[in-house]
Amino acid sequence: MSYLNHYSYTIEKFEPEMVTYIKGTSAASQLISECMLYSLTAGGKRIRPMLLLEFCHAYGGGFKESIPFAVAIEMIHTYSLIHDDLPCMDDDDLRRGMPTSHIKYGEDMAVLAGDGLLNTAFEVMTEAALDSHDNRALKAMQTIAKAAGTQGMILGQVADIKYQSREMSLESLDYINCHKTGKLLMASMYAGAVLGGANEMELSHVETIGYKVGLLFQIVDDVLDVVGDEQKLGKKTKGDAKNEKTTYPALLGLEETKTRIKLLEAEILNLAKALSIDTTFLEETVKFLSCREY
Amino acid sequence: MSYLNHYSYTIEKFEPEMVTYIKGTSAASQLISECMLYSLTAGGKRIRPMLLLEFCHAYGGGFKESIPFAVAIEMIHTYSLIHDDLPCMDDDDLRRGMPTSHIKYGEDMAVLAGDGLLNTAFEVMTEAALDSHDNRALKAMQTIAKAAGTQGMILGQVADIKYQSREMSLESLDYINCHKTGKLLMASMYAGAVLGGANEMELSHVETIGYKVGLLFQIVDDVLDVVGDEQKLGKKTKGDAKNEKTTYPALLGLEETKTRIKLLEAEILNLAKALSIDTTFLEETVKFLSCREY
Question: Does domain B14-291 have CATH number 1.10.3720.10?
């Protein structure tokens, strides 16, 4: 089976599991559930849950035990998109080819659906930790909580909306992206490895690689915002230029940015060799990420 | 020492602990920390942390072990106020006598500060659970997570903004309030009892009492919105009438509502007698809640 087939197959198993964590009975409960599911099932590459599931599996952990954490990390990613799209933030109408949450359900429900997804992520992980016999689940939850929080993704978002400027340095841009995108991607890999039982040395190495994967992902995103196809991406491009945001292509030029992508890709593949696990899935994911068109 | 003195003394010990959980180093980190602390330290009665600390203490638990959960529940309460006050929700400019978060820091930061407080609450509880030697901490976190989530407080908020009408029944109003206010107040008491080591029978009884305390709290809030003093309350009154919200006074009339408060108070005090602990603190809190002017 090709890696892309394996990827699709895994995600096809994952997605029906994911939606079982959201249920509604009363009218109000059905409304918030519908609103959360609308964004959660709107597609998306499922890169974070996939990395978590793969790292857990590679270190010998089970699919079933890692599912709640894969679900939680996708819920956290989705809540961040819903809140980022709000009129008071990036003010985006379109996401994954569909109207954004606040366009479809109103701003009030979009705020609450985001809150609901973040809270549900922690409910799901807490339940899993209570079912667990060791503290791997708690450690995975700790990793994800920190990466999503005010020293991680939320900090990146604050830096992005408040400290972006056309004159910023490469270091500052890396700082924003490391937090805004890098931390949660790193946490997907790290939490998966924790759940699978990786030792401290392996974990530290996974962390190093994780940040680089996150950076790669963001740089490719920036390139797609310049050269990408709106149809394939399912969102408006050229948004960074419109919002006067500094991007890698704006700072380095398109060609040097593409060179940086290639260098990062090589660096990750090289670092991956030091891990004790079969890293075919990681190599395939990195290749897919750096060549992706959407 | 009178109970009110004891209350003030405990909160004076609690508040400096609470702020240590929020720190910022970089500029962006300082900004989000400042914004979270602005709302977290804007006063408030600290009813939820106080109930949690008292129940934990009454069942034999330590102050130190219960602090992270008391902090977490106050963070969750505060995040819900910040998001409730947003222009797309209740659109309030004033809270506890000060400009609301979005007036002071802008809507984008208010959304992120709310997200940050919710996420930090779970970071704090996860750390505490990792430090703990039994699963009481995890069970307390589970209680708080459920009460705050889409079957609890968030559901109540959805019901409040989407299913409020002038013609609603007393049952529907109780349903909204039980979720919007009752669940988190109940969870404060229940989580405290869990941390203190209460057995299942006691916990079930604490749950019953907790919902009634939550309802009492909300009914008094409704009365204060009609007859309260804006100066003492630190927020605009008559907001419910302005927003065409059904309240207990609107539904039952002011006198019958006051009778219901007295009945609930008596019921709680009576139920409290069946608990195995010294419930003086609960009696004092309930009396304070039902006579409060702010």
Answer: no
Tabulate helix, strand, coil % of chain B (nearest 5).
75, 0, 25
The closest CB to that of A83, out of B24, B111, B139, belongs to B111
Confidence of residue B229 (pLDDT cuts 50, 70, 90): low
Q: What pLDDT, on a 0 to 100 scale, did the predictor assign at position A231?
A: 63
- Show the DSSP H helices in chain A as ranges: 3-19, 27-40, 47-58, 63-85, 101-105, 107-131, 136-148, 153-162, 170-177, 183-196, 200-227, 230-233, 239-242, 248-252, 254-272, 280-291
The fraction of chain B above a pLDDT of 70, given in percent, is 93
Selected for mutation to probe chain A from B21, B123, B153, B165 (highest A CB count within 10 Å) is B123
pLDDT of residue A230: 64
Residue in this structure with the two tokens 């919200």, named with its chain if needed: B245
Chain A nearest-CA residue for B140: A126
CATH architecture of the domain A3-291 equals Orthogonal Bundle (1.10)
Residue ranges, chain A, pLDDT below 50 = none
Q: Judge: B118–A116 Cβ closer than 8 Å, yes or no.
A: no
Nearest CA in chain A to B123: A145
Q: What pLDDT is stored for residue A232 in this prediction?
A: 63
> Which residues are A92's β-sheet partners?
none
CB-based contact B132:A5 (threshold 8 Å):
no
